[in-house]
UniProtKB/TrEMBL annotation, chain A:
NCBIfam families (UniProt xref): PRK06521.1
GO CC terms, sorted: plasma membrane
Transmembrane segment boundaries: 7-26, 33-58, 78-101, 113-129, 165-195, 207-230, 271-294, 301-322, 328-361, 381-399, 425-454, 474-494, 530-550, 652-670
Matches recorded under Pfam families: Proton_antipo_M
Name used for this protein in its record: Oxidoreductase
Entry keyword Secreted: no
Main location: membrane
MF terms (GO), sorted A to Z: oxidoreductase activity
Membrane topology: Multi-pass membrane protein
Domain NADH:quinone oxidoreductase/Mrp antiporter transmembrane residues, every copy: 130-414
Subcellular location: Cell membrane; Membrane
Automatic annotation (TrEMBL), chain B:
MF GO annotations: lyase activity
Alphabetical keyword list: Lyase, Membrane, Transmembrane, Transmembrane helix
Membrane-spanning residues: 12-29, 73-95, 101-123, 135-161, 173-192, 231-249, 261-282, 294-314
Keyword Protein transport (UniProt): no
Origin superkingdom: Bacteria
Keyword Oxidoreductase belongs to the record: no
Name of the protein in its database record: Formate hydrogenlyase
Localization: Membrane
Main location: membrane
GO CC, one annotated term: plasma membrane
Length: 671, 318
């Protein structure tokens, strides 16, 4: 059976059917199992079909459904790019469904989650499949609203309503930008179909405007700084498996939208477009991870780290744009493949980490890291999976995060080939930003794992925590295995991505499968190569050798004793290093500028029994400098306009008359 | 034939770094002591320390987890693998293509990641303070190191250390300002990463300014031996890296006569001893900085790396 678009559409129809089923079986006890079981099976089928499409290098297939606008219908198309993103979406969906089978039984309000979960999955699938502007926008809104409903599942909890509100406003704003972008692309006579848009010529000024609008529209959904503000509010508010989907998968759908429009529909834009995307990506990466480091709520920390990863992906896409604009096809293919590889990797480890955070939340009821600790003893399996996720996301070999980061750096090192001075200088500078972000990410995840899982329990709930159910663990370990496999066998992933790069860039990276020992060679072996499998084997062999020799020939005795406390042993677990104190050195280095962080020490005079207090004053400049003035301005004008609602009939009539005259005048002058 | 010689070089190198690492630290300590007009322990003292620690039992804190027990071996293995991939006396290592310079930096990052986690495992304040400062230093040292890598890789056209060494050993390089900047940046990073003065003091215990030693305070016995051994190896690795990238004279290029290996091993040992002497001299001549001055120190390294990279373009266009 040739994998085609019709099968994917059937899967979407099945997901929508599951939504109806969930609504029908609203209060039934079995509905959790049935819904998640159904989405698991459907997602796996859709994933398998998308993967076989990629592996088979199949031809793109299209279909038109007679729904939507009467003269247009709904166009759907499955090509290599769509197949890759469908694979990401459905693999994430399958993992979340498996996790939900266990996690969902703890849900306090299942009727608020179950109907929207399959709908959300269907929405993401549809966005990727859409092949005309109308369907794309409609599905985009459907996806946004379904996820909004999931964010609002626990709407009575403090802050969730605000999170939902901010999300709704930002999502509407993003769709508005997309609407304008597609309006420009479709123009007066081009039409809504993607095929028509693709073949129509686009003026440079128009292309620049579309790029800016796409950065606003897709960028706000993906979490580009400074449009990221909704993301750390909304992603953690949803149930954990939905958080995983929103962070790990929905941001990728936004990136898909960006790639589809900017790379595919718009045709290659100028090199200055590359520089904009590059710089935005680099800045987003560093800002995102700095925010994450300052955070003590584990789910918000993960959401901020998503912003960092989105930054890495955008920087890599910017590189691809810059290389492509200069006709350096191979380098562009390298940067583009690196971006897609990171898309895949991030969907693996971010889902895994959110599942882990969800497991902690289920068994302790806490998201605040300052109240956790010592969970490695109480939840050994969860903590191991979470550790794998932390190592992978910190870009450490031999796991997958390192491979994509390495490919990005290899692409950065192609910068001497670029003719423009601006790019020559900006590319290594952004490379430095990415290196900084990677190093800070390692610090951030030492904090996330160390404070949550290591040390001693900081609260009774953490001390009494227990391991979570098998379905949740299976989902986590499946993703952990994928992180590991993609790390040691990166050549297979790169070869799998080749048709996508070929379709979008026109070039592909060299075939990796024929390289000896499964190593990856982006350009030439004398230039650079990496072999995750061998690195893993070497580390394992070296460690085993050391263990064997020491345990065989030296000592293997162990004695347990209390930890050494410098003569003042074990006051309380609160005396441990906490999340805030762990981040303090980094806050002092970066925070004084970026967060305007100020520390105030209130030291009572001798004899005063008051405790000394240290307060830290931090500001989110994006909120204060951008959003607060903006909201104030909106309120101000709304207040002014409000007065129009309380006029006398005479004034209304004169207002109408004045408007009419002004419009006629404008028309007269215009023509 | 080539494969066999490459394999021999690889194995020889792995053993060599393992055997030499404690000696290098011993030599540095001895020279430092002599410069301070002390007699100082024998240069073989680090070997004796390691053997003593290996024979002792491990005292584990009551709530230490499996991570605490695994970390010493993982960090040691990661550093050893990284050290085995840096050409010391000959290029053309059998496995040098399995990880380039960026991967070596990341391998060291893995070692540090686990060590920092282990510092937080027992849940005492000392471990936490050490870990938190170590990651702060690393967060600045790693990008500086990457910029150094960029600079060298853009000049040599490769991140593969064997290729870089071959390129640098050829006569076509000449003196370059950007290379000088990269070298200074690398030396600064090396001082920070190896917890040397002026960033950290390897000889202190229980001082609030210490970083690395605070992090590993809970370790004892064979675990401590592995961590110390890892630290010795790391110092050797960084010095080898500086030698290999910036002073690869007399390094044996693939396919040379067997005699040249003897010469290159001798040259390597000489360069190592010289570097050890310079390190001891530098450490005796400077004082340790306050921990919050370290970011400025590493920021300078970062700027040097970036300037070196940018200058590379400027110098090329004239």
């Amino acid at each position: 059976m040739i994998p085609g678009v019709d099968q994917q559409v059937w899967c979407v129809a099945a997901l929508l059917g599951t939504t109806l089923l969930a609504i029908a079986a609203n209060r039934s006890n079995k509905s959790t199992t049935v819904v998640y079981g159904a989405t698991l099976v459907i997602s796996l089928i859709a994933f398998a079909r998308a993967l076989s499409f990629l592996v088979a290098h199949a031809e793109a297939t299209e279909m038109v459904l007679p729904i939507g606008l009467p003269w247009l219908g709904s166009h759907f198309r499955l090509d290599a790019l769509a197949a890759f993103f469908l694979a990401v979406v459905n693999l994430g969906g399958a993992a979340a469904s498996l996790y939900g089978l266990g996690y969902g039984s703890h849900e306090s309000a299942p009727h608020r989650v179950l109907p929207f979960f399959p709908a959300f999955l269907a929405g993401m699938n549809l966005v990727v499949l859409a092949d005309d502007a109308f369907t794309f926008l409609l599905c985009w809104e459907f996806m946004s609203l379904a996820s909004w409903a999931l964010v609002m599942a626990h709407h009575r909890e403090a802050d969730n309503a605000r999170a939902g509100y901010v999300y709704l406003v930002m999502a509407s704003f993003g769709t508005l930008a997309l609407l304008l972008a597609f309006g420009l692309l479709s123009g007066a006579g081009v039409g809504y179909g993607f095929a028509a848009i693709r073949s129509a010529p686009h003026a440079p000024s128009e292309a620049a405007l579309v790029l800016a609008l796409m950065l606003l529209g897709a960028g706000s959904k993906a979490g580009l700084v400074p449009l990221h503000v909704w993301l750390p509010l909304a992603h953690p508010a949803a149930p954990s498996h939905v958080s995983a989907l929103m962070s790990g998968v929905m941001t990728k759908v936004a990136i898909y939208g960006f790639i589809r429009v900017v790379f595919d529909l718009l045709g290659p834009p100028g090199w200055s477009a590359g520089i904009v995307v590059l710089v935005l990506g680099g800045a987003t990466a560093v800002m995102g991870i700095l925010y994450a480091l300052m955070e003590n709520d584990i789910k918000r920390l993960l959401a901020y780290s998503t912003i960092e990863n989105v930054g890495v992906i955008f920087a890599s896409l910017g590189l691809a744009l810059a290389f492509q604009a200069n006709g350096l096809g191979l380098a562009a293919a390298l940067a583009f493949t690196a971006a897609l590889f990171h898309v895949l990797n991030h969907s693996f480890f971010k889902s895994l980490l959110f599942f882990g955070a969800g497991a902690v939340l289920t068994s302790t009821g806490e998201r605040d890291m300052e109240k956790l600790g010592g969970l490695i003893h109480r939840m050994p399996l969860t903590s191991f999976a979470f550790l794998v996720g932390c190592v992978a996301i910190s870009a450490l070999p031999p796991f997958n995060g390192f491979v994509s980061e390495w490919l990005v750096f290899q692409a950065v090192l192609r910068s001497p080939d670029l003719p423009q001075w601006g790019l020559k200088i900006m590319v290594p500078a952004v490379g430095a930003l990415l290196a900084l972000a990677a190093a800070l990410a390692a610090a951030c995840f030492v904090k996330a794992f160390g404070v949550t899982f290591l040390g001693r329990a900081r609260s009774p709930v953490a001390a009494a925590a227990g391991e979570v159910d098998r379905c949740s663990l299976a989902a986590m370990y499946g993703l952990a295995a994928l992180c590991f496999l993609a790390g040691i066998l990166p050549g297979l992933v790169i070869d799998g991505l080749a048709p996508v790069a070929q379709a979008i860039i026109g070039h592909r990276m060299p075939v990796q499968a024929n390289d000896p020992w499964l190593s990856i060679v982006p350009i030439a072996e004398s230039r650079s190569s990496y072999n995750g499998l061998l690195v893993f084997v070497f580390i394992t062999a070296a460690a085993s050798l050391a263990v064997y020799f020491i345990h065989r020939f030296a000592s293997r005795a162990i004695r347990r004793g209390p930890a050494w406390g410098c003569g003042f042993a074990d006051p309380t677990p609160a005396a441990q290093y906490s999340g805030a104190s762990f981040a303090q050195p980094i806050r002092r280095v970066f925070g004084t500028l970026i967060f305007q962080a100020r520390e105030h020490v209130d030291m009572p005079s001798p004899g005063d029994p008051r405790p000394a207090r240290l307060t830290v004053d931090m500001h989110d400049l994006v909120w204060e400098r951008l959003y607060t003035p903006l909201t104030k301005a909106v309120w101000f004008f709304a207040d002014r306009l409000n007065q129009l609602q309380f006029l006398t009939i005479r004034r209304y009539l004169s207002l109408v008359f004045a408007t009419l005259v002004t419009l006629l005048l404008v028309l007269a002058i215009w023509s | 034939m080539v494969v066999i010689s490459d394999m021999l070089v690889q194995l020889g190198q792995m053993t060599l770094v393992l055997l030499l690492a404690p000696l290098l630290t011993g030599v540095v300590r001895k020279i430092k002591a002599r410069l301070l007009r002390r007699k100082g322990p024998s240069v073989f003292q680090p070997y004796r320390d390691l053997l003593r620690l290996l024979r002792k039992e491990v005292v584990l804190a009551e709530n230490a987890s499996w991570l605490f027990r695994v970390t010493p071996y993982v960090t040691f293995a990661a550093i050893w693998v990284a050290a085995a991939l840096v050409p010391t006396f000959a290029t053309g290592l059998q496995f040098s293509w399995s990880a380039d310079l960026i991967a070596i930096v990341a391998l060291l990052g893995s070692a540090r990641f686990f060590l920092a986690l282990a510092g937080m495992d027992v849940g005492t304040s000392f471990g936490g303070i050490g870990s938190s400062r170590e990651v702060m230093i690393a967060a600045l040292a790693e990008p500086a190191m990457m910029l150094m890598v960029f600079c060298v890789a853009l000049i040599a056209g490769s991140t593969q250390l064997s290729t870089v060494a071959t390129f640098m050993a050829s006569s076509q390089v000449g003196l370059r300002v950007s290379l000088g900047m990269a070298m200074i940046a690398l030396i600064m990073v090396a001082l920070a990463e190896n917890a040397r003065i002026p960033v950290d003091n390897p000889a202190t215990h229980l001082e609030l300014t210490m970083v690395h030693e605070a992090m590993i305070l809970e370790y004892s016995g064979r675990h401590l031996a592995m961590i110390e051994f890892g630290a010795f190896l790391k110092l050797l690795l960084y010095i080898s890296l500086i030698i290999c990238v910036f002073f690869p004279w007399q390094i044996t290029i693939v396919g040379a006569a067997p005699l040249s290996y003897v010469v290159s091993v001798g040259a390597y040992l000489f360069k190592l001893a010289l570097a050890g002497f310079l390190l001891a001299l530098f450490e005796t001549a400077t004082a340790k900085m306050r921990v919050f001055r370290v970011p400025e120190f590493l920021g300078a390294a970062l700027m040097l790396g970036l300037l070196g990279t940018l200058l590379r373009f400027v110098s090329e266009s004239f």
